[in-house]
Write a structure and sequence with these properties.
Layout lengths: L1 H18 L40 H17 L5 E6 L4 E7 L5 E4 L20 E3 H14 L9 H7 L55 E6 L2 E9 L3 E2 L12 H10 L14 E2 L2 E2 L17 H4 L4 E3 L23 E3 L11 E3 L25 H17 L15 E5 L5 E6 L6 H16 L4 H6 L3 H14 L13 H6 L32 H4 L2 H12 L34 E6 L2 E9 L3 H19 L15 E4 L2 E4 L23
Parallel strand pairs: 3-7
Antiparallel strand pairs: 1-2, 1-6, 2-10, 3-4, 5-6, 8-9, 11-12, 13-14, 13-16, 15-16, 17-18
Helix pairs in contact: 1-13, 2-5, 7-14
């Protein structure tokens, strides 16, 4: 059923592609990354704990130089490619199509097992997309995953989203990547991510979510992340299934060339950051591998190709970037009246007005006693306090403070508040909201009914969960699901990493079907939105864009979808309860999944202690009370996993135990 439904969508997109020509193709400097980051545990002046990132941005000349360098290297390697440059909040500053670059790129059919069987694809496998969309997604990934304390590329992304971490033929049996599923964030249907029509206020959406295809990197100016570059041109939008070997991909050569003069400080590149004892990957290409750099935009603009418009993203010109932290970027430091913690940042509109001010729950039609604004504020302020004390997992130097985004929603999925630390990676903004909504949704008594009403492809997952858990009432609010719990059920092997013939019921039906382009329910929920958006881009607006809301689940009472920016399936959220009544969810994302778990769990607990009315689910209804029999062995789901000794200012251990 799911394959047939996708086939109809893919066929519809193919008609649009065919009508647009099929696969036919057609020195500003600024100081690289020589500055070294400084640790942030020491309080700054004025009682603050964090330092604001310097407000730097790419100039038109910078963008021209970056494009010229990438095009020059691509040309030297015989790769007709498309190059995209974005700023830190995702505004597309320029897209350059070299002569002969393919107009379309196919999403990889390959599974982890290496099979590529035309006609047997699931999810997005085999779908053709505009090459410019692939390049933009790569650029956004490099910008959004990075910060002043970490520089991640699309090669890094590939490593952390697969079914085993690290991905390689010799690592079968290890757990899935720490950010498994993050690729389905920043979606074009997201109600949080903005659009070019919003006046270039970020954070912007990505046409394909986040990318796992090597060829995307962050860009830095005087040590400050200011954007990203993406290069696409080989006709395949894929991933790297083996991080042990060294690839020599022409797309990555060109992208690395584009970053010259705009590289991150060496100390924060991904390969200097270990996760669970494994160093992350940044690039398989070194600067010494490059040919002579072409820095003149005039030398390539015309002879080698031209700037091109991408409908909904860029009008065919080069723009200067916006400086993160200003009203124009869509994210700025909060005022005391907006949020008590002096280090907090908020999302704003073009006038500088907060987009998501703290407010009370909107779900009185569904529950008797919704969250009050005071309760939302308490949970968010206490979570931010925990975040400010926590040791970062993915930031350098060691003993830096954690940086992330915190979101709170009600049972209808309505946003009740979003707040960020100054230098949290941008991707965590949309992801924290996905996490909060996911925890609230799967803990809700209406979860099964909502999924069953979203069409046969989605409805199938309800029965799969019920059969898997041996519970005919599963997904009707009897248990509280944190994102870690739902993530357990979303892995292609259950238990996570244990290779066998059992897949989690929210994952693909058979473990061998998994690819980063089909995770299961997470993908199924948003495929129609993604295909509709690509048709909009390809047709130049002749086809309607996806609505500003994801998924086909029915609206909540009063309007709005509970999963309006999709779901997320890696840890970092918990549902919020008033006694045994579900009243919302809190999600955290940006700096290590165990840290994200701790901030959501402890922040909610401390906020409840402060107000006296709300808190975490009782022990008896938490999802870690659920035991699944797998081939004669009992496996318990998990709820949250807090770091062992997480605080910079306190030697306490096991800080979540007993709460």
């Amino acid at each position: 059923m799911r394959r047939r439904a996708l086939g109809c969508l893919t066929g519809a997109l193919a008609l649009v592609l065919a009508s647009c020509g099929g696969d036919g193709g057609t020195t500003g400097g600024g100081g690289g990354g020589t500055a070294s980051p400084t640790p942030s545990p020491t309080p700054t002046t004025g009682g603050r704990l964090f330092t604001d990132p310097a407000q730097r941005a790419l100039s038109v000349g910078d963008v021209q130089q970056i494009i010229a360098q990438a095009v020059g290297e691509a040309q030297a390697r015989g790769l007709p490619a498309t190059v995209a440059v974005v700023d830190r909040v995702g505004n597309v500053l320029g897209v350059f199509a070299m002569t002969g670059t393919p107009g379309n790129t196919r999403i990889s059919r390959r599974t982890i097992a290496g099979r590529a069987v035309p006609g047997d694809e699931v999810g997005l496998q085999g779908v053709q997309v505009p090459t410019a969309a692939a390049a933009i997604a790569k650029a956004i990934t490099g910008a959004y995953l990075s910060s002043g304390g970490n520089a991640f590329s699309t090669r890094t992304a590939s490593q952390i989203v697969q079914e085993h971490f690290p991905p390689a033929a010799s690592t079968v049996g290890l757990e899935s990547g720490p950010l498994f599923g993050v690729q389905f964030s920043q979606l074009p249907c997201s109600d949080l991510s903005t659009r070019m029509s919003d006046g270039m206020i970020g954070p912007q959406r990505s046409p394909l979510g986040l990318a796992a295809d090597p060829g995307g990197f962050p860009l830095y100016k005087y040590g400050v992340v200011v954007g990203g570059i993406g290069v696409a041109g080989d006709g395949d939008y894929g991933f790297d299934p083996d991080t042990i070997d060294v690839d020599r991909a022409a797309e990555e050569f060109a992208a690395v060339a584009g970053t010259q003069g705009f590289t991150p400080p060496r100390a924060i590149e991904a390969d200097r950051i270990p996760v669970d004892g494994t160093s992350l990957r940044y690039s398989d290409i070194a600067a010494s591998d490059l040919g002579p750099l072409q820095r003149s935009f005039g030398a390539v603009n015309g002879p080698s190709g031209t700037l091109v418009p991408v409908f909904g993203y860029n009008d065919g010109t080069i723009r200067a970037g916006t400086a993160y932290g200003t009203n124009a970027s869509g994210i700025r430091r909060s005022t005391a009246s907006e949020f008590a913690n002096r280090d907090a940042y908020v999302l704003v509109d073009a006038a500088g007005t907060p987009r998501f001010p703290i407010r009370a729950g909107t779900d009185a039609a569904s529950i008797a006693d919704p969250l009050s604004a005071a309760e939302v504020r308490a949970a968010m302020e206490e979570a931010f306090t925990v975040l400010s004390r926590a040791r970062a997992q993915i930031r350098r130097p060691l003993d830096s403070r954690m940086q992330a985004t915190i979101s709170v929603v009600d049972t209808h999925g309505a946003v009740l508040g979003i707040v960020r630390s100054p230098d949290g990676p941008i991707f965590g903004t949309d992801v924290s909201l996905q996490k909060a909504r996911t925890a609230a949704f799967f803990s809700n008594r209406v979860a099964a009914a909502q999924l069953q009403a979203a069409g046969p492809a989605v409805a199938d997952y309800v029965q799969r969960v019920r059969s898997f858990l041996g519970d005919a009432n599963a997904l009707t609010g009897t248990f509280a699901f944190a994102d870690r719990s739902g993530g357990n059920l979303s892995r292609p092997y259950f238990p996570d990493g244990e290779v066998g013939d059992v897949a989690g019921p929210l994952s693909v039906e058979r473990p061998g079907q998994f690819s980063p382009f089909m995770t299961g329910l997470q993908t199924e929920l948003i495929v129609p939105n993604l295909v509709q958006h690509l048709g909009f881009v390809i047709s130049g607006g002749a086809s309607p864009d996806t609505p500003r809301t994801c998924t086909q689940v029915p609206d909540a009472p009063g309007g709005g979808k509970r999963l309006a920016n999709g779901i997320q399936i890696f840890p970092g959220s918990v549902p919020i309860y008033r006694g045994d009544q579900l009243v919302g969810g809190i999600g955290v994302s940006g700096d290590g999944i165990d840290q994200d778990d701790m901030v959501s769990f402890l922040g909610l607990h401390n906020g409840g202690q402060r107000t006296g009315g709300i808190g975490n689910a009782r022990f008896e209804i938490r999802a870690d009370r659920i035991v699944v029999n797998v081939n004669g062995s009992n496996v318990r789901l998990r709820y949250v996993n807090c770091p062992f000794a997480p605080f910079l200012d306190d030697p306490r251990q096991n800080v979540c135990e007993g709460l």
